[in-house]
Design goal:
Layout lengths: L2 H15 L11 H8 L7 H11 L3 H12 L5 H15 L1
Helix pairs in contact: 1-2, 1-4
Length: 90
């Protein structure tokens, strides 16, 4: 699964869990459908706008997408990797 597909699925799962239609998250139904199927990429600004409409932090969508794209990774391992990445950069 590509990262675009994983991000799309994360958005779709969040949207569906809240009972929202594709139109209710701030773009045309056609665009949202393409994003959810991984056919279109999103800008960071659009990801942030979708996250805001979904009531979640954009990082939560990215974490969910990372876990979807890497089924062998669990959330604890992912967060350990992120913590190590942030320490290296500081």
């Amino acid at each position: 699964m590509t990262l675009d597909e994983a991000i799309g699925l994360a958005i779709k799962l969040s949207r569906q869990s809240q009972g929202l239609s594709q139109e209710e998250i701030g773009a045309s139904q056609s665009f949202v459908s393409d994003v959810e199927r991984g056919k279109k990429s999103m800008t960071v600004q659009r990801l942030d706008a979708f996250a805001c409409r979904l009531g979640v932090h954009p990082a939560a969508l990215m974490v969910q997408a990372a876990l979807i794209a890497n089924p062998s990774m669990n959330i604890d391992l992912l967060f350990d990797n992120i913590k190590n990445d942030l320490r290296v950069k500081q």
